[in-house]
Amino acid sequence: MSHNECDVLVVGAGIVGLGHALAAADAGNSVIVIDRDRRPVGASVRNFGHICVTGQTGELRDLAVGSRERWLNLATRAGVAVRTQAGLGVARAADEMAVLDELASTRDSVSPIDANTTREALGGAGADDVVGGALLLDDLRVDPRTTAPAVAAWLSARDDVEFRWNTSYLGVDDATDGDVRIRTSRGQIRAARVFVCVGHDLDYTAPVVAEEHDVHRCGLSMLQVADPGFRVNSAVLTATSFLRYGAFAETTAVRALATRIDDDRPDLRAADTNIMFTQRPDGSLLIGDSHHLDRTLDPFLDERVADLIVHEVETILGTDLTVIGRWQGVYASRPGGPYLTAELAPGVRACSVTTGVGMTVGLELAARHVAGELV
Known about the structure:
There is one protein chain. With 375 residues, the chain is α+β, with helices and mostly antiparallel strands. The protein folds into two domains: 5-46 and 146-213 and 336-370, FAD/NAD(P)-binding domain (3-Layer(bba) Sandwich); 87-136 and 216-333, 2-Layer Sandwich (D-Amino Acid Oxidase, Chain A, domain 2), CATH 3.30.9.10. Helix content is 33%, strand content 28%. The protein has 13 helices and 19 strands. Strands 4, 5, 6, 12, 13, 14, 15, 16 and 17 form a nine-stranded mixed beta sheet that branches. Strands 1, 2, 8, 9, 10, 11, 18 and 19 form an eight-stranded mixed beta sheet that branches. A two-stranded antiparallel sheet has the order 3-7. The radius of gyration is 21 Å and the shape is elongated. The mean pLDDT is 97.
């Protein structure tokens, strides 16, 4: 490729952007990736690192299954550490176990286990009231802090891919099909096709499109706690997770669970929580989370919500935890669907996941977008 010309320009080096770059390069295109930061620091590093295939239904399930294969392919090609059979649903009441049992009756990859086996899967920890659980065998896990940077580094070593960090997208100077000129903070780049993959920042780069599709930002309260002294190999989902993820939430058994949570735990509902956690390679736990929608998010976190999350995870594990870090996660959200693709100009397309499953579906969504399968 010449210095400022390429076949495909990708804006944004999160998982969705990296997926576009990978698919375009594998199809024989020269690729330039620009990102306003000096490394990935957005939603792709602020999450649990959970590829939650089990929790998806419909089109999201199809995308998740495709992404799962692409993650496994990346493990082979790029040396990215991907843990398989990496989901665990924990039940602490009969109505929670009923949800898991019902889902297991329709999916071979959901394997119910008894209370003792569940505690073993929790590293020997677990509250006295754990009644059982289920292994979620389709799910994968990666380390969210290191995976996107590792994929970017691997891609940048290819002759057909170039990364330009600390380079901002400023708009389209001129665009016809097959010949697009993009203005950046470091000069113009000419490309045949452009993919703008900026997640929740779509309202900055294409505010009219974001407003037309009612795109909001979803803010999450997330925390990191010190190594509790035991190992949990799976991403752990709990009762509030069953209310949130489609495959669990579409069971008939979930109705009784939802009624009980509404009656007994309005605090969990008020904060729109999904109490779950994963363990990093250093042993620390990533725990969360809560959800709050707004077009512009306040930067201030509510300590009461953080305390609620910590208390819930401590109760599930039956041990005290020490907080060593906290942050606000953020992703794009809209009522009209789980992802948004749109033409911004001839040859210029946007792609954002508009629910909290970017790690789960992003690679397959990107590949289909590059292949022209999404309008």
